[in-house]
Amino acid sequence: MVKTTIVAMMAGLALGASVTWWFSRHGAEEAPPADKSEAQVEQGTNGERPVKLDHARQVSAGIVTANPRIMEVPSEVQGYGRVLDPTPLATLLLEIESAEAVLDASAKEYERAKALFADNQNASARDLESAKAAMKRDRALREVARARLLTGWGKALAERDDLPALVKALTALESALVRLNLPPDEPLSSPPTGARLVFLSDENRSAEADFVSPAPRADAQMQGQGFLFLLGKNSLELRPEMAVTGFLKVRGEMLQGVVVPRSAVVRHEQRAWVYVQTDDAGFARKPIVLKHASDDGWSIAEGLSPSDRIVVSGAQVLLSEEIKAHVRFAE
Length: 331
Prior knowledge:
17 strands; five-stranded antiparallel beta sheet; conserved putative lor/sdh protein from methanococcus maripaludis s2 fold; disordered N terminus; 7 helices; Helix Hairpins; six-stranded antiparallel barrel; alpha+beta; 3 domains; Elongation Factor Tu (Ef-tu), domain 3
């Protein structure tokens, strides 16, 4: 009986070992291979995380690369400002027109009194002096209004021959007057030649504005140089007090750069980036500075070369893969 029990136990152990060996062998053989089409993100030595995608995954993700187009970039300085409210300007212009009308009437009254006084004393000396005093008072009031226009809006604007027509266009929002300010530590040695205005909320929309004059007064907050620009045709549909970014064009040599399409730019960590192809399957994220807006993208003067292959379609996919990998690395 004991002998039979021992034999049964040994047979059971042998059978269990055989089953375990069979499942471990065949289970390993039947495990599905890793999906090599998934994006692979490597942890670089300097903190960078290049994304690796094979050709099939690039096609499915819509990854398209291209060499950036060479372009001369104008020398520009970035400024910030707002659209000026034309109501004070319009009110002041009406005051000047009203003062001129009153002065015209008092000047005519003085001339009439002077003629009557000279013609057999038909007007008294007192009447003549009163008319003269009224004319001087009205002239002074007109000059005060003109001085307010000059000090508040600048000589170039105050002396425009078409100022009434311009004010009408500004109040109708057909044109826009914009003030741009520079940081105190970035002064210009000469006035800008113009500016490209860009929405703070939508940098894809821009328009060229003409330089008017230096701002007649300093900005209480910025304390740097200020300049006035006129957007003759308000294609951006700007409204008073809207915040805008401006790229002030300054005199100087053109810079050599490249044009980056807007579709190539991704935002991350409050910066702008593009993905540059490093090899057949590798893409590295590279920071860029968006200073020079153009009709077909951004003109980049530093950081990229015409030989770089940048991702012009599918860059957001690469950023998503990189962010997911960052979470895995953090875990």
